[in-house]
Automatic annotation (TrEMBL):
<keyword id="KW-0274">FAD</keyword>
<keyword id="KW-0560">Oxidoreductase</keyword>
<comment type="similarity">
    <text>Belongs to the methylenetetrahydrofolate reductase family.</text>
</comment>
<dbReference type="InterPro" id="IPR003171">
    <property type="entry name" value="Mehydrof_redctse-like"/>
</dbReference>
<keyword id="KW-0285">Flavoprotein</keyword>
<comment type="pathway">
    <text>One-carbon metabolism; tetrahydrofolate interconversion.</text>
</comment>
<dbReference type="Pfam" id="PF02219">
    <property type="entry name" value="MTHFR"/>
</dbReference>
<protein>
    <recommendedName>
        <fullName>Methylenetetrahydrofolate reductase</fullName>
    </recommendedName>
</protein>
<dbReference type="InterPro" id="IPR029041">
    <property type="entry name" value="FAD-linked_oxidoreductase-like"/>
</dbReference>
Amino acid sequence: MSIDLSTPPVPISFEVYPPRSDAGVAALHETIRHLAAVDPRFISVTYGAGGSTGGRSLELLTHILRETHVEPLAHLTCVGNTYAGANTLIREFLDAGITSFLALRGDPPAGASEDDAFLGDLGSAAELVQLIDRVQAEREPYTEAPIPGVPGAVRVDRRARVDIAVAAFPNGHPRSRHAFEDIDALLAKQAAGATLAITQLFFHADDYLAFVARSRQAGVTIPILPGIMPITSGARLRRVLELSGEALPADLAIALDVEPTAEGQRDIGIAHAARLAREVVDGGAPGIHLYAFNNHDTVLAVLREAGVLVPATRMPQAVH
Ligand code: FAD
């Protein structure tokens, strides 16, 4: 399988994270079943920087591969890992049948800083893109296709089987000193072989649309999928701002603040995310990637409210 963003209706995709305990596995499998029922182009599974969730990530990816028709996309981080270790990790995922990746450098572990002596052999996501590409090429050296009209000539394709996504930062990476740096980082990832970019969350459609326009002007040609996160409580807003370094969205923060009930806050978050989804799609986004927080109800409500969810073509099967 590979990721196809070219066919209607609006392509959707989801991010989930590996269950933190055995108790969460059954509920997450149920969530995956509901997400798969709306035909997403892929479901991505996060990976703890430093390999903290590696085994559980791969288990969940394998579950998606075996139990659904949806492409599983594996986040991989290389921070703290050696070159040989990253090589082994990529092989392990390929051996399990995973052929779509989100290549990340990852943040330094808690307590370590960017200036620490060893943050891993690979310095950036772009280097991991190259390594995934190389490992795949070594396993399956190349495919050959005749070039029509040129007798005897063949087109050698070394990247027939893996899709490699990368992260993009519409409002700048927290360590960015200038907006150009974020575009340059994305250009480097594209040059290394990335085939798709997925953005960090953002709160206003213009943040994404202006970033895409600047990227295109600078020569980025790969699709840039907007990452949209439904913010369904003031506590979640505070947590994601802390993790992502994004600026406080005053309008959303005030709306969540004055709403006294959890249900009301959830409705505000869904409406905000749905509006954002609609605006970026109207502005030309190639699809919508939703941070699902291992819960299907909220993201499916966002898609319904945004008007991009066609009636499910595959109903969830009964749990055996
Ligand atoms: P790179 O772009 O290669 O950056 C590597 C380092 O270079 C950064 O940490 C930073 O120090 C520096 N840098 C990058 N851009 C700039 C810039 N513009 N200016 C100055 N310095 C810069 N993390 C996880 O641990 N696991 C996950 O599963 C995960 N999934 C993610 C999914 C998405 C869609 C996104 C957007 C982020 C995700 N992250 C995840 C977080 C990500 O690891 C951090 O944002 C990380 O700081 C940057 O990773 P990168 O792959 O983009 O690395």
